[in-house]
Each structure stands twice: as structure tokens, then as C-alpha cells.
């Protein structure tokens, strides 16, 4: 197993402090803020550990303050309801005595049969026909913002193969604010479905906010943009493995008033709709030195 995956599994294996109270840490990789997907995943793990049998099918979260990577995060779970079919939990992430993130999650006891339908995935080349990350870095590395290049140069727990590679790295204004990227963990995961759900929650925050900037020829690393995820919603529809390729299809129906709204759908290689995602984020134009994320 790769070190990046080992580190991810260790980070998702929260320390139980007390009943309904857990502690998580962040990888020390030089980022100024904790990656939003990590907080989502850890909060989901904390909430899931207080549910006996039901599995997560939806979550809704708000990012309140930027997380400090140097400080552990305490997750406090509130048991709102346990019914025959559904359980509901609220989880708050706390640092330095302040709530930095809040999540509400619903858990469902699996049911067989019933009605079933889903949209089909759009056309996309298979991941094998796209450059792997080494080829991607060699081809586009000189055009990447420095933080992105450093990200691709180190071993990472999530492998990505953008379908529109040029748009992802060096873009002009595009008519259609949408993108597609193949994603999976960079090595095999244990068979526990809860780990795969947490890994998908982790990667669901990747590239999504950036989609709202495609129409405007910018990215979240553009020096004239102040960008931050504000809220995040995830619905899990069907069983999946996060260590197998998934097509992450994203679009942005709206941007206005310094806010960008993006949607995502994750499909398996066989075309099954695995999950749906929605997110709104700050995409403020910098006209003067702006406030940091903790002051938003």
C-alpha cells in the first residue's frame, strides 16, 4: 500500500476521546488551510461511528472558518434521531475553542427492490486514453500555478485524469462552465464500505469550486481571485469502490454576487450514477487586500 493511502487511512481513523467525541489531525504538507474535503470526510467518519447499522446516504455541510493544519480538530457528534429506517446526526468540528465546520448527515438502513432510474453519463474517453499524472506533469507542469505543481509532484492519495487537460491548467474564458475528470484513490483500499464513503467525501471537494471560474477564464489559484468553499452537499446513491475509476462530471449553472455555484455527478466505469454533489463557494474579485478566510 502506498504511503499516501496509508496516511489517508490513518487520518480517517479518528481517535475516540469520549462518547460522541473524536479527534482528527491534518497531513503536514504545507497548505495554509485544512483541505475542505478532509474535514468533510473526518466529520462523516465521526458521525458514522455513532450509528449502529444504517449507512450514510446524504450530508449537508457549512465551512465556517478556515482550519489550522497544525492543530488537531475535535469532532462533536449530536445524535438527533434513530428510527427504524433512518438515523440523523449533527457533527461540529472545533479548533481553538471555535466551531470551524458543521455537518448534518442522514443514514439509511439499506432496502432492496423499489423504483430505480438514473441519468446516463456523458461521453468521455476512458482514463487509459488520458495522460497519467507523470505525463500530465511533464506536459503541463510549466503552465501550472506553483501550489498546483507542488501538489502534483508529491505522492497523493487521490489520482486524477482531467478529460479537458488544457482547460484545467491554462484557460481562457469558455462558453460552457463544465469539466470532466476521472478520479480514484491512488492505491487499493480495504473492503470496508465506510472507508470508501469517506474517501469519496474527501475527493468530492476536489476541482468543484474551480468549475464556477471556467466561464471567466480564471481558476481558484488566480492572483485576482479570493476563493473558498462555503457549503457542500453530497448524496450517495449506489454502492461503489473509491479505488476504482469514477467519472466526476461538473458544471456551474450560476455565478453572481461573488458566489459561484457548482454541481457534480460521479459515475462508475459501468455508467452507474454513484453520487451527486452541490457546492457554493466564494469567488470574490480582489480589488484591494481582502479579509482572510477566518473573517468571512
Offer a few descriptive terms.
single chain, 296 residues, alpha+beta, Porin, 12-stranded antiparallel beta sheet, globular, Acyl-CoA_hotdog, Acyl_CoA_thio
Question: What does this protein look like?
Answer:
The protein is an alpha+beta fold. The chain has one domain (3-109, 127-295): Porin. It has helices spanning 3-12, 36-48, 133-140, 146-153, 165-169, 193-203, 208-211, and strands at 15-18, 21-24, 55-63, 73-82, 86-95, 98-108, 158-162, 178-185, 225-236, 246-256, 259-268, 273-285. Strand 4 (73-82) and strand 5 form a beta hairpin. Helix 2 packs antiparallel against helix 6 (193-203). The protein is globular.
Summed up, what is this model?
It comes from Candidatus Rhodoblastus alkanivorans. The protein is of the alpha+beta class.
As for the CATH topology, it is: Porin
Distance between the termini: 40 Å
- Pattern of helices and strands: HEEHEEEEHHEHEHHEEEE
Characterize the largest beta sheet: strand count, sense, and whether it forms a barrel: 12 strands, antiparallel
How many strand elements? 12
Share of helix among residues?
10-25%
Apparent shape: globular
* Number of DSSP helical runs: 7
Low-pLDDT sequence parts: none
Family: Belongs to the C/M/P thioester hydrolase family.
Protein name: Acyl-CoA thioesterase II
Domain Acyl-CoA thioesterase 2 C-terminal: 150-282
Keywords: Hydrolase
Amino acid at each position: 500500500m502506498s504511503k499516501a493511502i496509508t496516511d489517508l487511512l490513518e487520518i480517517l481513523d479518528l481517535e475516540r476521546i469520549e462518547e460522541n467525541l473524536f479527534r482528527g489531525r491534518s497531513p503536514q504538507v504545507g497548505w495554509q488551510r485544512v483541505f475542505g474535503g478532509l474535514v468533510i470526510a473526518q466529520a462523516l467518519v465521526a458521525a458514522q461511528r455513532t450509528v449502529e447499522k444504517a449507512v450514510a446516504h446524504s450530508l449537508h455541510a457549512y465551512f465556517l472558518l478556515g482550519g489550522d493544519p497544525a492543530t488537531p480538530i475535535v469532532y462533536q457528534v449530536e445524535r438527533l434521531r434513530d428510527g427504524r429506517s433512518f438515523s440523523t446526526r449533527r457533527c461540529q468540528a472545533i479548533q481553538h475553542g471555535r466551531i470551524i465546520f458543521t455537518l448534518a448527515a442522514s443514514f439509511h438502513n439499506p432496502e432492496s427492490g423499489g423504483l430505480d432510474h438514473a441519468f446516463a453519463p456523458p461521453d468521455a474517453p476512458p482514463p487509459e486514453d488520458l495522460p497519467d499524472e507523470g505525463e500530465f506533469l511533464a506536459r503541463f507542469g510549466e503552465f501550472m500555478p506553483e501550489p498546483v505543481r507542488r501538489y502534483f509532484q508529491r505522492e497523493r492519495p487521490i489520482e486524477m485524469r482531467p478529460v479537458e487537460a488544457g482547460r484545467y491548467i491554462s484557460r481562457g474564458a469558455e462558453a460552457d462552465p463544465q469539466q470532466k475528470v476521472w478520479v480514484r484513490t491512488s492505491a487499493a483500499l480495504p473492503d470496508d464500505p465506510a472507508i470508501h464513503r469517506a474517501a469519496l467525501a474527501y475527493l468530492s471537494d476536489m476541482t468543484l469550486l474551480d468549475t464556477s471560474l471556467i466561464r471567466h477564464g480564471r481558476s481558484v489559484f488566480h492572483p485576482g481571485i479570493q476563493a473558498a468553499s462555503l457549503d457542500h452537499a453530497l448524496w450517495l446513491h449506489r454502492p461503489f469502490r473509491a479505488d476504482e475509476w469514477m467519472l466526476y462530471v461538473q458544471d456551474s449553472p450560476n455565478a453572481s454576487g461573488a458566489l459561484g455555484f457548482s454541481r457534480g455527478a460521479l459515475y462508475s466505469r459501468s455508467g452507474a450514477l454513484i453520487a451527486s454533489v452541490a457546492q457554493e463557494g466564494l469567488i470574490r474579485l480582489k480589488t484591494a487586500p481582502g479579509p482572510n478566510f477566518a473573517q468571512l
